[in-house]
Amino acid sequence: MIIPHHVTGFWAPQPAEDPARAGSVGAGILLGEAKARAIPEKRAFYNGADATGLVKGLLAERGVVVESPYPLGYGYAGSAVLALATALANFGLEGLVKAHVAEVENGTGLGDVLAIATGGCLVYRYRPGAPGIGAAEPLKCPKAYAIAVDLAPYGTPHMLSTLGPKIREAGLAAMQEFSKNPNFESFLAVANRFSREVGFLTRRIEEVARGVRGLLGYYAKKGVAVFVAEEEWALDALAATSRLGRARAVELRDVSIQLP
Asked: Which residue from 166, 9, 17, 22 is spatially nearest to 75, judged by alpha carbons?
């Protein structure tokens, strides 16, 4: 199966007693595609590393092997990709809710499963919860490239424990602003402001951004920086942003989960 990654630009946690109804609202870009396959052994692997501990509750009969261009633990929703692959391999489409619940209960994600299950390019999540309970809308992306840069590992539990109140306050303000004009241009502006207010945008990222030609916008989420550049400047943007870390350029396009 093929499962996209998700790098949210802004979000506001929405707690609830029922984990299927808990989650977050916000918006983010789907990019890249991980490949996953089921294996008879009840274990999970992500890019060769054992990740069984992240999905123990989802390993009913089969395990999974996930191969992805993006590392786990940076901000690419790798844990959601792994949870979805495991849940779908074991429970079929019923696994969509199980994957979301596992993410919420493990503290590894709040809205990524809903965004990935929705599919598209830019996904606007306006009601929290698992697929079928929460609600999200795919929005159009321009003809452009997203350059995603690995900055450093940054765990979600640590982020939520240290930045939770600040993220919720900034996220609710971002949602209010974005809802007035939900499109890609607005997303980049709101995501930039959110990541600056929360503290994800460092001086180094700002310095590099000033030297990127054809730049449409940029933001950071945990240990990932995302730069969106016009198509003709994509290679230049890739070279310039590589000063921050390993960078990958992906054409913005509609992507979705593809089952075998």
From this structure: 9
- The CB density around residue 42, as the number of other CB atoms within 10 Å, is 17
Does residue 257 form part of some domain? Answer: no
Mean pLDDT by 10 residues, the chain (260 residues): 98 97 98 96 98 96 98 97 99 98 95 99 99 98 98 82 88 98 99 97 97 98 97 98 98 97
Whether residues 190 and 217 share a domain: the answer is: yes
Beta carbons of 34 and 66 less than 8 angstroms apart: yes
Query: Model pTM?
Result: 0.96
28 closest CA partner among 13, 8, 11, 12:
8
The residues with which 120 forms a beta bridge, in sequence order, are 255
Same domain, 217 and 244: yes
d(CA 194, CA 219): 8
On whether the CB atoms of residues 139 and 181 are closer than 8 A, the answer is no
Distance separating alpha carbons of residues 36 and 16, to the nearest angstrom = 31
- Among 93, 176, 77, 133, residue whose Cα is nearest residue 66: 77
| The domain boundary residue, chosen from 139, 169, 187 | 139
> How distant is the alpha carbon of residue 228 from its chain centre?
15
